[in-house]
Write a structure and sequence with these properties.
Layout lengths: L1 H4 L21 H9 L7 H18 L1 H17 L11 H38 L17 H8 L2 H25 L3 H4 L7 H42 L3 H12 L2 H22 L5 E4 L4 E6 L9 E7 L1 H12 L3 E4 L1 H10 L11 H18 L1
Parallel strand pairs: 1-4
Antiparallel strand pairs: 1-2, 2-3
Helix pairs in contact: 3-5, 3-9, 4-5, 7-9
Length: 370
């Protein structure tokens, strides 16, 4: 019983790093997948659109196609009795082949052009415009026989096989339904005029083709919805993948905090080096300290060259005492300078009056000492 109760918990663990994929894909992951050629696209929908365009084109140009076919047929076989074995040379055969090929191209040109345009439009509607050559690049993983066997027995291949069976069954049924009422006429085609027989067969082919195309269109729309659902599910991310992507794009938060701390340290060192040039230190008096310098020849207004709170405020006052800089207590002005003025900037006009009073007081003290 003890052996039966021992389970390997790793067997029940979720696949992939970071646990279960419960998070919606980020725009970066979707963009990277798109660059790799991974998009939600249904080939069934492309096939359906191509078939519909083909048979509609045949329906529209059926007169032109029929006349061209009959004309070529009559021209080719009408001259057989005029060509003896002695006259039938390589040049004669080449001329007949060129004429036949030109007729085939002329007949198929409208269908090829319209089919090409429809295919491009359907692709653009599904995946927009994105040119990438990465799917064409050789990958050694594609030559791995183990991966090949896995793909053969994968869920996607089972679904594809199921779709193919449905398609074959429906096509057989549609073909039977289209021909069951016309079998008597089909068996008498050899007694009919060439033009009538071609017209009759053409109508059957076009009607059957359109019915099959409509079925493929319904199947393609369902497959497109399934591909979008499957693609979204495949792109889902774990919480760990979200964190890793953020680190790659924005940088490691620990590294960023260290860089900011280093930059703050350098800025404070530079600030403390400039502090002896200050004219006055304005304090809260314990929590804030702001150093003001005013040189009317180089600046239009006093400049804040240093500021700090708590510990840094005490350090500013220590340096001020060492350099015999006046320390003036003005709680409102100290707070406004700390919160509203950046180091190296001139004080705003709304603080001119209060700052001028402090500077005037300091200048008067310096004059008395002199």
């Amino acid at each position: 019983m003890e052996k039966l109760l021992k389970y390997n918990l790793q067997f029940f663990a979720k696949e992939g790093p970071g646990g279960e994929k419960t998070e919606e894909p980020t725009s970066k992951k979707l963009s990277d997948a798109r660059k790799e050629g991974q998009v939600a696209k249904s080939t069934e929908l492309i096939t359906a659109a191509s078939l519909i365009s083909l048979f509609l084109t045949i329906r529209i140009f059926v007169g032109f196609i029929g006349n061209s076919f009959i004309g070529t047929f009559g021209k080719t076989y009408g001259n057989i009795d005029k060509v003896s074995s002695e006259d039938f040379t390589n040049n004669t055969a080449q001329l007949l082949m060129k004429d036949s090929l030109f007729t085939i191209l002329k007949i198929s040109f409208p269908m090829l052009i319209i089919g090409f345009i429809v295919t491009i439009i359907v692709n653009l509607v599904q995946v927009k415009w994105q040119v990438t050559g990465k799917p064409l690049q050789p990958k050694f993983s594609k030559f791995n026989p183990v991966n090949g066997v896995k793909k053969i027995f994968s869920k996607d291949k089972v679904i594809d096989l199921f779709k193919e069976v449905i398609k074959i069954g429906v096509i057989i049924y549609l073909a039977y339904d289209a021909l069951k009422d016309k079998q008597d006429i089909i068996f008498k085609l050899y007694d009919m005029d060439l033009f009538k027989s071609v017209y009759f067969i053409g109508n059957i082919v076009i009607d059957l083709g359109l019915n099959i195309s409509i079925f493929f269109l319904i199947l393609g729309l369902a497959d497109y919805l399934y591909q979008k659902f499957k693609f979204r599910k495949d792109m889902m991310m774990t919480k760990q993948e979200i964190k890793d992507e953020y680190k790659q794009s924005e940088g490691d938060p620990h590294v960023k905090s260290k860089i900011k701390a280093k930059m703050r340290e350098v800025s404070q060192r530079r600030m403390m080096q400039q502090l002896p040039e200050a004219d006055v230190i304005i304090t809260n008096p314990t929590h804030f300290a702001a150093a003001i310098k005013y040189d009317k020849e180089s600046a239009e207004a006093p400049i804040l060259i240093a500021k700090g709170a708590d510990y840094l405020a005490q350090k500013i006052k220590e340096v001020a005492r060492e350099n015999h800089i006046e320390i003036v207590e003005n709680k409102p002005l100290a707070r406004m300078l700390y919160y509203n003025v950046e180091i190296g900037n001139e004080i705003p006009p709304e603080l001119y009056q209060m700052t001028a009073e402090v500077l005037a007081y300091v200048y008067s003290l310096n004059n008395k000492n002199s």
